[in-house]
Write a structure and sequence with these properties.
78% of the residues lie in helices and 0% in strands. The model has no long low-confidence stretch (mean pLDDT 91).
């Protein structure tokens, strides 16, 4: 294998690796946007749950026994 063939092979591999890295970077960026959106949704759901529990009075862990005791 002459030097030019080796250089061509290395350039080809480099181009493929650059493309792969860009593809992976795009996927990671997309997943990060999805994660951020899911985190915001989770925060909203937790706030709503807290609001509902405060309206209902929540569940008191030391609740008095029922009247029939």
């Amino acid at each position: 294998m002459d030097i030019q063939a080796r250089v061509d092979d290395l350039e080809s591999r480099l181009a493929f690796q650059d493309d792969t890295i860009q593809t992976l970077s795009d996927v990671i960026a997309s997943q990060q946007r999805v994660i951020a959106r899911l985190e915001r949704q989770m925060e909203l759901l937790l706030r709503r749950q807290e609001e509902i529990l405060s309206r209902v009075g929540g569940v008191d862990e030391e609740e008095a026994p029922p009247p029939h005791y």
